[in-house]
């Protein structure tokens, strides 16, 4: 139960850090309590879409200035060069696992969200057509599947009309599937994963292609819900485009998100292929600290058994995954009680406007770290513990559209710190 590196949390940040350590030959374990949050994500890699309520078109230019403008932001700690290295590394890793990511060079592009909102992102899967703010599209068709609740074109139309006005012809439609006739359940009960499973049981692409072509009415772009499958869904969409003659873009649905699951599965597969030890379904509940270092941790499932490591990484996430907890008195880090930066008075936790373009203060709360991502406990720096991802303070991943970018870059950066110290120890 002794490792070179032990990672707490199995999201993008934790897996990024763990994989980077494994690539260097470190004995690495990862403890993950529940489902990866990527199952709820878009499947794109968001770097920085907005800051202080203003849209960001060229994110690296903004990140480069953060040491001066936003010194407490995780990107300011990591630095623009390492952020770039991390994103290139992540794109290469996913590509090696069959998930090809693409973007617009130094600029963000737009992707179509479930409710019709065009969201800026850095890299998208090839199944998502990249759009620009001044798109040349003249017509788009939003086509769903009869009975499917998690993609509602009628709701998306209003958002698209608000953004494009009369410049874009928007049509909607739906198709029925013969595949559903073999299933006794009502289609309104299906989630995206259920439909993907049904479609994998037979050859339905020719039927879908014909019905899409009839509904598309010659549109320049046809948006369909992401229901074709996880990894196999990429090839299925390419085949569907060839058979239909349409330009298709898949739209992530309400959870579960198949494009998000693709990324989660790819990262997990790489972790396991490199020999990582995965402790699934367990939660770290406490740690043993001594002279400014974390010596071991205990988990809920293993009783008195202690997990020891030379280096630890906390990638436990924010409120959604209970890495941060807010009660009536305070916002706190849930496992070790690490020092946090958070508004003290309860009435300062949020803005008066629910849809304030600026971040609600509680969203910026998180663990306080030094420039190496080491946290402190009651003022004492823990120099072999690193914090990564949304447990960190100083940014709002939702408002900024920076969740996966911060996760990947801080995970990568923490691994670089660990590797430097590990190599020094090995050389002695």
TrEMBL record:
Segments forming domain FAD-dependent oxidoreductase 2 FAD-binding: 4-406
One Pfam family linked to the record: FAD_binding_2
GO BP, sorted A to Z: glycerol catabolic process
Cofactor: FMN
GO molecular function: glycerol-3-phosphate dehydrogenase (quinone) activity
InterPro entries for the chain: FAD-dep_OxRdtase_2_FAD-bd, FAD/NAD-bd_sf, G3P_DH_GlpB_su
Name this protein carries in UniProt: Anaerobic glycerol-3-phosphate dehydrogenase subunit B
Gene: glpB
